[in-house]
Amino acid sequence: MPYSKLIALASMVFVSVVSVLPVAATPQIMKQAKDGGFPAQNCQYCHVTPMPKKEAFKPDDLNERGTWLLGEKGKQKAKDVKGEWLKNYPGNK
User: Fold this and answer.
1) Does the pTM of the predicted model rise above 0.85?
2) Alpha-carbon distance values, 19 to 7, 37, 48, 67 (Å)
3) CA–CA separation, 60 vs 80, rounded Å?
């Protein structure tokens, strides 16, 4: 299998896995981000919509930072997203 096809297949699998992971965005995550010194003032720090609904969540509702956090949740096989992970977000540099 050519390398490019393998990359495309791996990307599709990753996106599929990430999209079915349950999301647990909570005010606690925002508090963790603020405690870590990040400028999280509202939900739009990680989401596109001002007040996302947990039951209607779609990965498309996340901005670049939120998508990265969701990916980290999958990589670390964590139950919940942690605000402290933001220190490793490549967009902060």
Assistant:
1) no
2) 18, 29, 16, 10
3) 19
pLDDT, tens digit, 9 for 90 and up, residues 66-78: 999 999 999 999 9
Tokens, residue 50 = 């001002």
Contact 42, 27 (CB under 8 A): no
CA distance 19 to 35: 28
Domain ranges of the chain: 3-92
Q: What is the pLDDT of residues 8-59, one digit of tens each?
A: 676 666 655 544 444 445 788 889 999 999 999 998 999 998 888 878 888 8
- Which phi and psi angles does 62 have, rounded to 5°? -100, 145
Closest CA to 20 of 57, 68, 64, 65: 57
